[in-house]
TrEMBL record:
Protein name: Prokaryotic-type class I peptide chain release factors domain-containing protein
Coiled-coil ranges from the UniProt annotation: none
One Gene Ontology term of the molecular function aspect: translation release factor activity
Family, as annotated: Belongs to the prokaryotic/mitochondrial release factor family.
Amino acid sequence: MIYLQISTAQGPAECQMFAAFALRQILREAEQAGVQAELLEETPSKYGILSAVLKFNGKNAEALAGRWLGTLQWVCPSPLRPQHPRKNWYIGVFRLPEIPELPNDGDIEFQTCRAGGKGGQHVNKTESAVRAVHLVSGIAVRVESERSQHANKKRALELLALKLAEHHQSALQQHAAGAHKSLYQVERGNQQRVFMGQQFKERLG
């Protein structure tokens, strides 16, 4: 199992547009490679996404991840600010720690509530959304993407484990005195892949 995070590192709207493209392209390449891909978490913005977490499984998952890990560059005049002098936009794709064993139910408080959505949808008719709180750390997640409460609970446990792994890594990094790069740091000048223009055509070679 491989977990990747796409991050704009608090970049501007153009980076958010680029991140949304990268997410679509990664999912497209996963399908072409026969890799099982699942979008676990997404933070949308007005212009695209701020970040996303993906899970991959399959014999080609490692190779797929390797093609995306690192800094991605988009070379294009801003479609949003025509007079802006900047033409280079950067985002990062990082590998997250392996998810540890799922937390024990005794350490988690589950709350159910009605899922959001447009009126009349099935998702609104039952309390299918689940909020899970890890009582020891206070970390909480909310899941309403699935129709059933059971499925949302299972996804909430997985996301909570991922959050705990991130939290653990963050604590280690704080004590590493700069030995490791921050998960959200985007390194410019060492691009893994470069895309050009508003059609995001990849520059090869």
